[in-house]
What does this fold into?
Amino acid sequence: MDRVDNTVSGLGDNVLAQLDNLKFSIEKLNSEALRIGERISGMENEINKLKKDLDKTATKIEMKQIETFIDVVNPITSKFVTKDEMERVLEEMATRPKKA
It folds into this structure.
């Protein structure tokens, strides 16, 4: 009887120890899950910030339009007429006899 009692008592102690270990493991997992959740939340916030910043950047098409505009108004590659030159040409045209 003592032997059975000792065996049952030993089993009970073993079960209690395993329950304590299980409880500790569950608490660790819960803590880790909370940390992972916080990290994911932080990452989501960073992704949203990046999306907002990306919305503010120029697209490839917009950059091509800007490049075209710069090419048009670039004084090195474009030919412009000064006001004096334009006035002289207009004056010459006004003084030329009209062809019928």
